[in-house]
């Protein structure tokens, strides 16, 4: 693979992920129900994590991979907590 081709593909992926973040933010702000807003937030953290991963590949620094791992863990816990709150009305039983 050519290095120029790889750089172009990574840049294109970052642009598409930025557009996906915009769509997820729109769904999070304008969702008709709370479930739609949680789904928008879940998509937003996921695309943010993928954007960090592509930037880490582009720059070659490992700091971005560690940050993406932290975002994935905290996002998963937040989604589970919000889902539990929407189902039962409380997070801690």
UniProtKB/TrEMBL annotation:
Give the protein's recorded name: Pha system subunit F
Topology relative to the membrane, per the entry? Answer: Multi-pass membrane protein
Annotated membrane-spanning segments are 6-26, 38-57, 63-87
Keyword Transcription found: no
Q: Which UniProt keywords apply?
A: Antiport, Cell membrane, Ion transport, Membrane, Transmembrane, Transmembrane helix, Transport
InterPro entries the UniProt entry points to: MrpF/PhaF-like
Q: Which N-terminal stretch is annotated as signal sequence?
A: none
Q: Which domain of life is it from?
A: Bacteria
Q: Where in the cell is it found?
A: Cell membrane
Q: What is stated as this protein's family in its record?
A: Belongs to the CPA3 antiporters (TC 2.A.63) subunit F family.
Q: Which residues form a coiled coil?
A: none
Query: Entry's PANTHER family?
Result: NA(+)/H(+) ANTIPORTER SUBUNIT F1, NA(+)_H(+) ANTIPORTER SUBUNIT F
One GO MF term on file is: sodium:proton antiporter activity
- Its primary localisation, in coarse terms, equals membrane
Lineage at the top is:
Bacteria, Pseudomonadati, Pseudomonadota, Alphaproteobacteria, Sphingomonadales
Record's keyword annotation contains Membrane:
yes
Q: Name one GO cellular component term.
A: plasma membrane
